[in-house]
Amino acid sequence: MMIQSNSLDARLAELQQTKVSELLHQEAGTGLQKTLELAQSAIYFADYVIRMVEASTPLPQPLACQEGCYFCCCNQVELTPPEAIFLGHYVERYFTDEQKKELNAALNRSLELQAGKSKAALARIRPPCPLLQDRKCLAYPARPLVCRAMHSIDAKKCKSAYKKRDLTSPPYYAHRHDIFFSISQGLLAGCRAEGCQAAPLELARALLDYGHQPQPVARWLQGEEVFTGNSLAKGHKK
């Protein structure tokens, strides 16, 4: 589930890239705190921009998304390294031992399903996110930017597309995707400029790497390639 957009707002991307540098070079805070702030700053910035845009130009139709609607959660999720750390830390801190065990099994099942399949083939299968349980996200407060970008103004079409494995997107507001996409690109650019691993990652592989590699945050900040698998899209490099 990579944000598809034909419009990169260079100014938003530049502002987020600058924020990355500011956060990583601030004197206060531990490495973990700074890294968590990288993801949080991008999330807060995107939410702020969307509120400002929609305050000046109200939406002609309300969003159809509501609790228990899970169709957009049945896709492959891509995220940036800071978001992977933010999500991994959330799991580490708030999941019970039993939940961690169940999640680990779900992550491995997801990787087994992906093996040998193209991105297009996986898109048609519409596998559920490993964090989806009882139609709810187990890590909703820490969900990645791409998940926050997903929305619809026609819930019936979402359901129909899911059942038919139709890849046509239900009606949505392009400006929301553009904002999240631009800020995500700024986050990656900022990490790259600071010498940190910076490429879109596949959620299941990234969470397994975070949980099983020693000192993932410190090593990522030092420029090591902590996350072993890039996104499902070919051609991404550090």
Task: Note the main attributes of this structure.
single chain, 238 residues, mainly alpha, two-stranded antiparallel sheet, 55% helix
Commentary on this structure:
This protein has 238 residues and is mainly α. The chain has one domain. It contains ten helices and four strands. A two-stranded antiparallel sheet has the order 1-4. A two-stranded antiparallel sheet has the order 2-3. Helix 2 packs across helix 3 (81-94), helix 3 (81-94) packs across helix 9 (203-212) and helix 4 packs across helix 9 (203-212). The two termini are 20 Å apart. Residues 1-5 and 233-238 have low confidence and may be disordered.
Show the helix and strand layout.
Layout: H1 10-25, H2 31-56, E1 78-79, H3 81-94, H4 97-114, H5 119-125, E2 132-133, E3 136-137, H6 145-149, H7 155-164, H8 174-193, E4 201-202, H9 203-212, H10 216-221
Antiparallel strand pairs: 1-4, 2-3
Helix pairs in contact: 1-2, 1-8, 2-3, 2-8, 3-9, 4-9
Instruction: Compute the number of structural domains.
Output: 1
Order of helices and strands: HHEHHHEEHHHEHH
Distance between the termini: 20 Å
Major beta sheet, strand line-up: 1-4
Q: How many strands, which pairing sense, and closed or not: the largest β-sheet? A: 2 strands, antiparallel
